[in-house]
Predict the 3D structure of the following.
Amino acid sequence: MAAPPEHDYDDRPYPGFVDALLDELECLRKENARLKEENDNISRFWLQRMAGSDDDIRFYTRFASYDHLLRFWSFIEPSVKYMIRSTRSTTGLTSRPKAQALHPVDELFMFLSYLALGEKQKALGKRFNVSQSTVSGVIITWSNFLLCTLGSLKLWQSQEQIKEYLPEDFKNYADTTVILDCTEFRCQTPSSPLVQSEVYSQYKSYCTVKGMIGIAPHGAVTFISPLFAGSISDKQLFLESGICRMLTPDSAVMVDRGFLIDSLVPCKVYRPAFLAGRNQMPENEVGESQEIAQLRVHVERVIRRLKEHQIFHYDIPLNMFGNINQLFMVACLLLNYENQPLVKAWAK
């Protein structure tokens, strides 16, 4: 019987094997890059689909235009790599973050849509094709990130900075540092009578949370207070907000009639005059009151822009109280980036 042929143990690759393997690896690399780019394009579908419509961008994000939004993204993008992501396991303990379901710019778009439209998290999840827990994590993560990133920039402006951008309308009130006003947001009625009494607003006749916003004469938001229970008075809120520490003797604040803060501040207060028991005001007081009222209305316009974020249009549920302060402050901070100048003549 013939012996079986000996096995050829020479395992040297055939000529051109290495080159063929390298060519195949290069093809796989290019295919991987193509699929990654395709996936990025899919994930940005919602934002890119609206790139040609500033009206849609305004509706979904409150930014004035697609260009405004991209400029804002380019401003914060370098800091995104330092973002600390918030996730929670079923046990309530912080868990290791999973792979991102969306590109960061899409997460920003989702968060802005949440503020602008006040959408339920479940509805956002269906629209972006992610789970509700992912939506919740994105909202918490981006509210923390934007509060830290935008809040780290100096909002309060010096008298020199204010005078540099002072509108002509304020020439008779050139020392005005800040224009202040309070705003309230309706909230869910607590079951506890004691808590109800804390958040019940005598002015609105329902339960609210209340905050104070300050703007520079040229319209930029320069001060944001925390939110307080709706029963607090304007004067007490002013005191609790800590803004007094920012004021100096050479500055001035402009407020509404209800802000009786003269004894609390080291500076001048511009406020429309009261009749104070008189049958009529002197002519000079009437003119001054009208002028102050016309200038003070700009802070009301800023607050109106804030309330265009529909998240504040509905009753704030009690389960949002742990995060509503952050959302309020972030929405206020975003006002400086989302909008055109309050008055076209102020644009420089």
